[in-house]
Amino acid sequence: MKLDPEIEKILDKALAGEQITRQEAVKLLQVDENSPELYAIMSVANTLTRRHFGDKGEVWAQVGINIWPCPKSCAFCTFGEKWGVFTSRVELSLEEVVSRAKAFEDAGANAIFLMTTADYPFGRFLEIAKAVREVLSPDMPMVANIGDFGPEEAEKLLEAGFQGAYHVFRLREGRDTEIDPKVRLRTLETIRDFGLALAYCVEPIGPEHSPEELVEEMFRGKDYLAASLAAMWRVPVPQTPLYKYGMISQWTLAKAVAVTRIVVGDSIKAMGVHEARILPLRAGANQIYAETGPNPRDVLEDTSKGRGFTVEDCKELLVEAGYTPLEGPSGAFPVRPKAVSPLTD
Ligand code: SF4
Predict the structure, then answer these.
(1) Residues in domain Elp3/MiaA/NifB-like radical SAM core (predicted)?
(2) CATH for 18-321, among 3.20.20.70, 3.30.460.80, 3.40.640.10, 3.30.43.10?
(3) What Rg, from alpha-carbon coordinates, does the chain have?
(4) Is 77 helix (H, G, I), strand (E, B) or coil?
(5) What are the pLDDT digits (tens) for 175-208?
(6) Which residue out of 73, 78, 82, 125 has the highest number of ligand 1 atoms within 8 Å of its CB and is therefore the one to mutate?
(7) Ligand 1: which of 68, 72, 119, 234 to mutate, most ligand atoms within 8 Å of CB?
(8) Where exactly are the structural domains of the chain?
């Protein structure tokens, strides 16, 4: 079978460990979804991942702490104040967050993420995080998924025992969100400068996004030295403005994962997909999420009763996709004996 020579040349470059360009990444995303070229792209991404990570698959587990109408009202998010999906303020107690985080570790998760809405009080978040840190094994990575923050907060996150942060410049940031794009970029700079390992993601992908927009975020994650990169589809939540665009297919998500994996090369320590499905796990992804508590893609207060997967679900899926679930802590978020930051040096 003959492939488009231009696509073949780009893929040979990727297999040789060379960096592909933005234009080449766009070219890969433009291939027809029923073409042999797409299978070749996914095969190369799969090869790169299995060559770099072996057969190890990772489960990262996130505890959502609160559901509040969020004033940022991102046009895809179930928490957005303007969309009226959630009108009351619900918050897990400190004890509940601690117990869910510990249960995730006991079930075999490889990293624990704590998530809040953008306006959750930072002091309260730290108080909860410190309590979680005390019950987790010292070498279990703890990762913050919160609103934008600056150097002072970064210092405090390190002191509280975080090793990483999930932070993203969302697709159409500032247009589909009410957050100043410059603020998002400043937070990404802070994360990099303070040595928090960055979990980055091309998200939330909808049918309306162009290849150029996706490629921009793939390279942004690489440029900010992401420890892990991922691609995530947007779940159309009724009542949110972007609901009308619908959802990309699992196949399109797999294509985005594959091209992201090829763009980022071997600079990452894990390649994620969200939400977890088999096809992207055969197209370069080796890391997926378990979730409990609130979730911006779900209309249930506790996503573990809705869209969220358990650690066991994730492990089963990894095995189905030909991976062996990693035992113990992820290597994507190096644990320091003592927090080190530019402010304390
Ligand atoms: S995505 Fe984050 S910032 Fe945007 S509305 Fe939801 S919770 Fe708020």
Answers:
(1) 61-259
(2) 3.20.20.70
(3) 19
(4) coil
(5) 999 999 999 999 999 999 999 999 999 999 999 9
(6) 73
(7) 72
(8) 18-321
